[in-house]
Amino acid sequence: LVRLRARLSRSQNALGKGLLTLLSREHLDDDTWEEIEDTLLTADVGVQPTQELVERLRERVKVLGTRTPDELRGLLREELLTLVGADLDRTVRTEPEASKPGIVMVVGVNGTGKTTTTGKLARVLVADGRSVVLGAADTFRAAAADQLQTWGERVGAHTVRGPEAGDPASVAFDAVKEGKEIGADVVLIDTAGRLHTKTGLMDELGKVKRVVEKHAPLDEVLLVLDATTGQNGLVQARVFAEVVDITGIVLTKLDGTAKGGIVVAVQRELGVPVKLVGLGEGADDLAPFEPEAFVDALIG
Ligand code: GDP
């Protein structure tokens, strides 16, 4: 965690440090507040959350009068924690029940890191003593099933796959069936994410979901978003939310951007918490999203 925190803070602290420096100016005039706004907008926090935060900061700084550095830091920390939703429940629901494994469907546009995230999540679960079945329902991208199976072999999870270009829903169905039969704790289903035809995506994901739910209800639908795509990610999020009920967001490639504000924007957009973050390409680079660590890394 310390290592992850260090990596996060390297990429993110432009935002928090910038805010603290600006707030520490002796005269907080309109120009400075505009700079504060710009800093938040540049970090992809989004227009409305930015305005709300700036309004609260203005009010609180006014009430405070003279400001010590510690007071300012504490105030900023508190407000940023509120902004990222420190109280949201971010548990990834993977608990098996008597009659069925926990079932998690992973969705998102190709290239966002869906397969990698599925593999990393399997690794975390296996390390936690859970048995995992992987469903390679991304039958569209030729290499996806191989990639997932490689992850499976690496972490010790069985992969269920179908014929190339086969029916994703039937792979998902088989994976859950297999999971039930062998008494697995968790079934993770990787799906395809072609966005160029929205109807195609809707049909396909909708079908995967319906077919899986013939076995048992889904416990989680995790939407994988690439943090470096900024506002584009929000557009994607909207489309997916129309098709399936997203229960959690995984924000990948947070290691490669200073635009951590997207956490705030996407949570607002979907009304769903960021549950996991991807902080690199390696197997250990998936972490729970921890608001406190995130905000501390922001402020530096
Ligand atoms: P998919 O098409 O959505 O399944 O995407 P992949 O899982 O194949 O990932 C696409 C690329 O993103 C790969 O090169 C991954 O190694 C990389 N990737 C995934 N997650 C992260 C992350 O958190 N950080 C970084 N830097 N790269 C990532």
Report what the structure shows.
This protein has 300 residues and is of the alpha/beta class. The chain has eleven helices and eight strands. Helix 2 runs antiparallel to helix 3. It starts with a helix and ends with a helix. The protein binds guanosine-5'-diphosphate. Residues 108, 110-116, 252-253, 255-256, 278-281, 285 line the site of guanosine-5'-diphosphate. GO terms for molecular function: GTP binding; GTPase activity; signal recognition particle binding. GTP binds at residues 108-115, 190-194, 252-255. Residues 273-286 form the SRP54-type proteins GTP-binding domain.
N- to C-terminal distance:
16 Å
**Strand elements, count:** 8
SS field, number of helical segments? 11
- Order of strands in the sheet with most strands: 3-2-4-1-5-6-7-8
Shape: elongated
